[in-house]
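Q: Convert this sequence to structure tokens.
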Amino acid sequence: MDDFGHGMNFRDHAVLYRMNAQSNQLEYAFKRNGIPYRIIGGTRFFDRTEVKDMLAYLCVIQTPGDDLRLTRIINTPARGIGARTVETAAQLAHEQQTSLFEVIRHADAYPELQRSQMRLRQFAILIEELQAAAKTMPPDELYDLVVERSGYVRALEEKNTAEDAARIENVQELKSNIIAFAKEADNPTLAGFLDEVALYTDLDSQNDSDNCVTLMTMHAAKGLEFPFVCVVGMEDGLFPGNRAMGDEEEMEEETRRQYRTAERAYDAAVARKESAVRKAEREVADCEEKLARLEEEGASDEETEKAQKALDRANEDLEEVREEQSLNVAEAKAALNSAEEDYGDVSAGRRTAADPI
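A:
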């Protein structure tokens, strides 16, 4: 925000991260502060399938009559409840002017649902038990219970693919939104959290500006340039990731990405310093020119003194800019040197952190 107030545009900024799940907290912070953003090479957090699925569970627990979200989760993960069964139940609900959930609860009363009544009732019992838990549990604990009882993560784990591992990370990351909401709310409830999510997703649909911060993974940033780049999550477990630990080939690839990202951040810091210093130098030159002109024209002492003060302030600002930007470049250079050293160690088959003391 400081940069935006000093003439830079949101579009001049990019935030890079290792995993898509990391975008969640960034999106949350940007929305709360009214900062427009876009995601390159990925999907907004609340638009991701697994996040929508888990939110659908929470919505149905809060409002069982939400037929749209109930239809989304009734066979997610697979419970042997087919699309034809759901369609039949929905038709019965329409005919009787009641909710789909009410039909499912009393599936044994409908001959049309005879073959699936046991599975439908089991699902209804699951929702009812989660509703009962919601009356006494805080939202974050309730979410843990929903993840466990629904079997959603278990089903993803059984698939055992990199894509499903990323989806599990997103399911787990949603809990951080619930915890953040609970910390700030006077009376944190499931309904309150869902209202907040609805507000933020509404804000997403209104943001169609090109002047926005870019969020993307380091991999997606290849070939793109920005005046200001921020890299988040540079720590063991995130970057390099847990899955790379113990795998020399994967660790080498991770440290290579880390080095290339630090290199891009350093280049951007140098370019930003040059731009900021040039701008401050132009301001000094303008003030010097104005003061010289006033003295040549024989302006009053008051006007000359005012121009001199403006020049003094411009020189002070120039020194501050040089100092601040030099510090930014030095920090970026230190990060680059560290990443270069790590990459060199791993490439040579050595892990500095694993060396005996």
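The two ends are 44 Å apart (CA to CA).
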